Amino acid sequence: MSPDTTTHVQTSWEKIKPISEQAAQLFYGRLFEVYPEVRPMFKGDMKAQGRMLMAILSNAVDSLNKLEAIVQPVKNMGARHAGYGVNPGDYDKVAAALLWTLGQGLGDDFTPEVKAAWVEVYTLLADTMQAGAAEQAV
Question: How far apart are CA 56 and CA 61, in angstroms?
Fold first, then answer.
């Protein structure tokens, strides 16, 4: 991952953090609106789920300069998600909702370069999660 990718993601995330509660609501609203089939995977308090999502994203963004520290936790998260019924196609749905949410939250600051950086980071995280799910299935 290039230093520019890390900088774009970390700088843009700093702009999302102050509106993290709203961003989480936008994310889940969009996810469930466009992909209602994933709604049954989410049980319980969605505000708490939103806080957990934002914390996980913050940790990942903060760790971009030391990715090796989060590889195993991300794999473990992927294994847990497989247990919830998440399949590989669901990662694309989450990507679409996340990118849409970032666009809403960042407005004009969601430039093509920032979007490309987020796509790269999300793809890395999603691939790592799916590797963890595959390891569990063996």
Answer: 9
